[in-house]
Design goal:
Layout (H helix, E strand, L loop, with lengths): L10 E10 L2 E11 L4 E5 L6 H9 L6 E6 L9 H4 L2 E4 L11 H9 L8 H8 L14 H13 L5 E5 L7 H16 L3 E5 L3 H7 L2 E6 L2 E6 L1 H6 L4 E7 L20 E6 L2 H15 L3 E7 L3 H9 L3 H6 L1
Parallel strand pairs: 3-7, 3-8, 5-6, 6-7
Antiparallel strand pairs: 1-2, 1-4, 8-9, 10-11, 10-12
Helix pairs in contact: 4-5
Length: about 300
């Protein structure tokens, strides 16, 4: 493994295992996260991802395997390691009666080389709220403050746990912009989320865990392309003739919708549109869709990530 200060990657894990008595929660995980990368670790509840992240953070001791985070073994508890990482939990639990500025200066005081206060406020978009009491911030603003607390020591690596849980769509998009800004500052980010759209939008690469193992890893586009099938769906008006070939399958339910799952969408769409022109009919609610990361997640784990996040 790399020696401290000479790491070829921000995170390198080989053969990681963690057992709780007879239960093996992590069963031989290999992982590599590059410097400056946004990496999403995904998995249903009980998959082992939380245990894995806690080992990387130094909060839990592994049973076996090799782990290097910024060239350090996190299990050693070195101060030099702790000064180089930031951790953003689902809630930071800061004093609600302090101002934003007071809160950040409190946490900045724990580090030898903290991020300047104005830079910290700019990084999370809270400059205009610097004198606002924490308890008066909106939910989205409080989450920005949580991230700012994690950034107080100017870390090279940020662990970001479920950054937008409970957010409305507008607040979620603002949080995504904030994470994008952190990446532009050169931060390495390890992200966990139950929102597959979030992982697709933010992550350079993702790994999906299930039953203590990584079952898929790669860029989001790579994972979705592994499921080659494209779904074509449409409805026909009452009295229209039956569509050609594979499209002549019985309608779904009672809404008159036809669906074809195909590995050759260009060919099949050409056949369909030629038939439409020949018979002078109109296709209603035509849609062509490729598998999403959520589809891949369900296929690999048998779970819906959104349902896991709500449980």
């Amino acid at each position: 493994m790399p020696t401290p200060g000479n790491s070829a990657a921000a995170i390198e894990v080989r053969g990681l295992r963690k057992s709780y008595g007879a239960l093996e929660a992590v069963r031989g995980v290999d992982l590599r996260v590059a410097h400056g990368e946004v990496f999403a670790l995904l998995g249903p509840n009980g998959a082992g991802k939380t245990t894995t992240v806690e080992i990387l953070e130094g909060h839990r001791v592994r049973s076996a395997g090799e782990v290097s985070v910024l060239g350090h073994d996190p299990a050693s508890g070195e101060r030099a390691f702790k000064e180089r990482v930031g951790i953003v939990l689902q809630s930071a639990g800061v004093d609600p009666f302090l101002s934003v500025e007071e809160t950040l200066n409190l946490f900045r005081g724990y580090y030898p080389r903290p991020l300047p206060l104005d830079d910290l406020l700019d990084a999370v978009g809270l400059r205009e709220k610097r004198r606002e009491r924490v308890r008066r911030l909106s939910g989205g603003q409080q989450r920005r403050l949580d991230v700012a607390v994690g950034l107080a020591g100017d870390p090279e690596l940020l662990f970001l746990d479920e950054p937008t849980t409970g957010f409305d769509p507008s607040a979620r998009r603002e949080a995504w912009e904030m994470v994008g800004g952190l990446k532009e500052r050169g931060k390495t980010i390890l992200l966990t989320t139950h929102y597959m759209e979030e992982a697709e939008h933010l992550a350079d690469r993702v790994a999906i865990m299930n039953q203590g193992l990584i079952v898929a890893e790669g860029r989001p586009s790579e994972l979705t392309q592994r499921q080659a099938a494209t779904t074509v769906r449409f409805r026909l008006a009452d009295g229209a003739p039956a569509p050609p070939g594979d499209f002549a399958a019985p309608p779904e339910g009672m809404d008159g919708a036809y669906t074809l799952t195909t590995a050759e969408p260009t060919r099949d769409l050409h056949r369909l549109t030629a038939w439409v022109v020949e018979h002078g009919v109109e296709l209603q609610e035509l849609s062509v869709s490729r598998p999403s990361l959520d589809d891949v997640f369900i296929d690999l784990t048998g779970h819906s990530a959104a349902e896991d996040g709500q449980s």
